[in-house]
Amino acid sequence: MGCSQKHLANAIATERHANFSDFINDLRIDDFKQLATDPDSQKLSAFGIAQAAGFASKSSFHRIFKKRCGQTPGEFISTLTA
Question: What is the pTM of this model?
Answer without folding.
Answer: 0.83
